[in-house]
Design a protein that fits this description.
The protein is built from 18 helices and 13 strands. The structure holds adenosine monophosphate and magnesium ion (MG).
Length: 486
């Protein structure tokens, strides 16, 4: 008896029909090895630890066997890349297996790196172990930080060769999300109202039921309702990125989830040393996706999404919905910053102090995560925090004003410290730590990845024995930027 036989599957995306995807079989990896399973996610999906250790499970997540009752497919989408219309893209190396019904709704399983599809273009359909480890860890880290994200169930490796700048080996991550529909999925049908409406009705029915139904609302109304939700969720997502120092690296519209999930972890970075124009992607020479531009890029991407609907909805109401973006963004951003600064309310004047904070971090290239984390303890011990800023006068001045402002709290100092420690992670997935996990995995040593995964599960809790994982990289460990190759 196969433990996957009893899993209850649905195939709503496949049911949209052949215009939206191509049914096909993945090309599995040879002699696959299961490197890691996210057991807490497996549990939510109704898969026991025993099941995830079975040969059947490995066969499925290595692309060698379909899920029982599965309908494997690659989806088509288009998109804007680096500001330019790129035309048709699609799942060039990803296969959707179907959705598992959970208590909180369906969760789709999608393999990434599982072989060629009709949308592979020049690609080989594969993903290397290096980038797969990065995607696997980032999904986990973001989830644990409370940031909306796709998740990753498993990481499988093989000795199969993959040709990038050097010869590397192949891997497959099994990603999990309620849906992998992207802004680009809609952009693909911008001039085809029938299919566009079909996708609109699909997304609303399954993921935004609160937006209404095609029976009661006009399509123009449905577009506005859905767009309103996407604006809100995307704004919230990027506000979280900003306040945790996450740079996505490739914010093309095909990498924007219609559910406001962080998706497609490539050359991303959780910043170490802060620079407002930091960008982790070596191919982004213009800095289009630099940290300080991320919020406006999301807005631009939302405008691309909105413009798909010009045949079914007038421009003014679309503009009206887009205009909510700034307010939505600032609401989440201010909330996050208030928590991170340890204030019990947000005052008008706080924006100035916070902007000076970013300037201070930038001028000193201070460590993003530790600058926030150590700020909690400045009422009892200031030297550690000040040392991040070379004990500069500017830092001492800012700190004085911070302490003055903090006196306006009604909450006690212990409450401020506790609040700050709940919102300023001590452990983030720094690039040099991901690199250590990658190098371990490449040499068959899973201990660094397992340890990092464990520690990142509770990133806000100080963990004995994990002191090194809270430290910024040494100059030798520092990874300035990453290539897009994956
Ligand atoms: P990304 O930059 O990873 O979001 O990928 C952009 C597009 O290129 C998507 O359509 C991917 O499916 C496709 N793609 C990226 N890498 C590969 C590959 N190795 N083989 C096939 N398609 C790929
Ligand atoms: Mg992509």
């Amino acid at each position: 008896m196969n433990c996957l036989d009893t899993v209850s599957l649905s195939h709503s995306f496949a049911d949209l029909g052949p215009q939206f995807s191509t049914r096909l079989t993945p090309q599995g990896l040879n002699e696959p090895r299961l490197l890691h399973v996210n057991q807490s996610l497996a549990h939510r999906l109704g898969l026991s630890a025993e099941c995830t250790q079975s040969a059947e499970f490995l066969a499925v997540v290595s692309g060698n066997q379909a899920l029982p009752q599965g309908q494997t497919l690659a989806a088509v989408y288009s998109g804007h890349q680096f500001g330019h219309w790129a035309g048709q893209l699609g799942d060039g190396r990803a296969h959707l297996l179907g959705a598992i019904e959970t208590t909180t709704g369906p969760e789709e399983l999608q393999l990434k790196g599982s072989g060629l599809t009709p949308y592979s273009r020049m690609g080989d359909g594969r993903a290397v172990l290096r980038s797969s480890v990065r995607e696997y860890l980032a999904s986990h880290a973001m989830k644990a930080l409370g940031i909306p994200t796709t998740e990753a169930l498993s990481l499988v490796a093989s000795e199969d060769k993959v040709y990038r700048e050097t010869i590397e080996t192949a891997a497959i991550v099994c990603r999990v999300a309620p849906s992998f529909v992207r802004f680009g999925s809609f952009e693909h049908w911008a001039n085809k109202p029938e299919q566009l409406k079909q996708l609109l009705h699909y997304v609303i029915k399954h993921f935004y039921p609160e937006c209404g139904s095609p029976i009661l609302q006009t399509d123009a109304e449905l577009v506005q309702q859905m767009l309103r939700q996407v604006v809100r969720r995307s704004a919230q997502m990027v506000a979280h990125w900003q306040t945790v120092g996450f740079c996505h690296g490739v914010m093309n519209t095909d990498n924007m989830s219609i559910l406001g999930l962080s998706i497609d972890y490539g050359p991303y970075a959780f910043m170490d040393s802060f620079a407002i124009n930091s960008t982790p992607n070596t191919t982004d020479s213009g800095g289009r996706y630099a940290w300080f531009r991320q919020p406006s890029v999301v807005h631009w991407n939302l405008a691309r999404l909105a413009s798909c609907f010009l045949d079914i909805c007038k421009e003014d109401p679309l503009q009206e919905v887009l205009a909510h973006y700034e307010k939505d963004y600032l609401a989440q951003y201010h909330w996050n910053m208030r928590q991170k600064m340890g204030w019990d309310q947000w005052l008008e004047t706080d924006s100035t102090l916070v902007n000076e904070w970013w300037q201070l971090l930038h001028d000193h290239g201070a460590d993003f995560s530790l600058s926030f984390r150590l700020l909690a303890q400045v009422t009892t011990e200031t030297q550690s925090w000040l040392s991040l800023f070379n004990h500069s006068e500017a830092a001492q001045n800012w700190l004085q004003r911070y302490l003055e402002r903090t006196k306006q709290n009604k909450q006690k100092n212990e409450a401020r410290v506790a609040q700050m420690n709940r919102h300023n992670p001590l452990y983030v997935l720094r690039n040099h730590l991901a690199q250590q996990a990658i190098e371990g995995a490449q040499q068959g040593n899973m201990e660094p990845l397992e340890r990092l995964f464990r520690v990142l599960t509770t990133p806000y809790d100080e963990q004995t024995g994990a002191e090194d994982l809270a430290l910024p990289p040494t100059p030798e460990q520092r990874i300035a930027a990453l290539s897009c190759s994956s």
